[in-house]
Amino acid sequence: MRHYQKLDSVTYDEAHDTLRLGCTDPDARLVSLWFGREGMYLSISANYGPLEIALRPRHRDLVASLSQLKPTERLAVMRMVGTGQAHLELGLTTEGDLLLRATIVADATGHFAINMIAKPDVRRKLFEWLDVENEAIA
Questions:
Q1: DSSP states of 83-130 as a string?
Q2: For the chain, how big is the Rg over CA atoms in Å?
Q3: Is the pTM of the predicted complex or chain greater than 0.90?
Q4: In the chain, what are the domains?
Q5: 2-24: per-residue pLDDT in tens?
Q6: Of the candidates 21, 28, 27, the residue with the CA atom closest to the CA atom of residue 102
Q7: Residue 27 carries which DSSP code?
Q8: What angle do CA 76, 111, 115 make, to 5 degrees?
Q9: Of 50, 54, 60, 103, which sees the most CB atoms within 10 A?
């Protein structure tokens, strides 16, 4: 069974143009998701304490995938950005929660993932920062 960590806080660093999604729960502060701009790419760092999954998808690919998400009744992956070996899985619930699953795939025998859910207010700020328009949740 998967455990999803709720991300319910956002911090914007104007000097470096980075966005950090995190947790206000003291027991879950080890989990964070950082986004930074690198030209036509985004740097994404999903952290759980000292463990990190670092991804570098194209900005336009992530924006296109987020703008095409349709809400579903349950947590389900609807889109994937990246490659078959390193990617960010995305989903959207009818409550407006955004599923974010940073994944590294070893081979057919296994993978490593950090499972997160951005609460609606956090999702809105991420969409603003990325300039995502999604009519399904407008």
A1: -SSEEEEEEEBTTS-EEEEEEEEEETTEEEEEEEEE-HHHHHHHHHHH
A2: 14
A3: yes
A4: 5-132 (2.30.31)
A5: 889 999 999 999 999 999 999 99
A6: 21
A7: G
A8: 40
A9: 103
